[in-house]
Amino acid sequence: MSQIIYKIVPEALWREAERNGGFTGAPIDVADGFIHFSTAGQVRETAARHFAGQTGLLLVAVDGARLGDALKYEVSRGGALFPHLYGPLDLEAVVRVQPLPLGADGMHQFPAPEAE
Question: Among 50, 79, 83, 89, which is disulfide-ready with 37 (CB 3.0 to 4.6 Å)?
Fold first, then answer.
């Protein structure tokens, strides 16, 4: 069974990860010691809170079930459990990469949900 989690990534950083064959995280991830992810129910708030007004972003969908024991759900803001990956992201676990553009209202325009 798949367990889709999401990472919002600047496109240039993601393209570098694709060239390198793996993703070790954005600067905030490296500083915190794990790669931050969001669930489907959290990703819009994450975009609004941490990426407000930013362009050139990608929404990376990852099958968390393929990440093994390195993926931990830990308490974060407001007591919510957020997925954190302790180690590099294996690109084989990525199921989809889509643009995350800003709309006219300044909010990120998320793609329509797909059946996972």
Answer: 83
CATH of the domain at 72: 3.20.170.20
Per-residue pLDDT of the chain (116 residues; tens, 9 = 90+): 569 999 999 999 999 999 999 999 999 999 999 999 999 999 999 999 999 999 999 999 999 999 999 999 999 868 889 999 999 999 999 999 999 999 999 999 998 766 54
Q: Which residues have C-beta within 8 Å of that of residue 52, sequence separation ≥ 6?
A: 106
Q: Is 34 a domain residue?
A: yes
Please answer whether residues 8 and 47 qualify as being in contact, where contact means their C-beta atoms are separated by less than 8 angstroms: yes
104 domain residue, yes or no: no
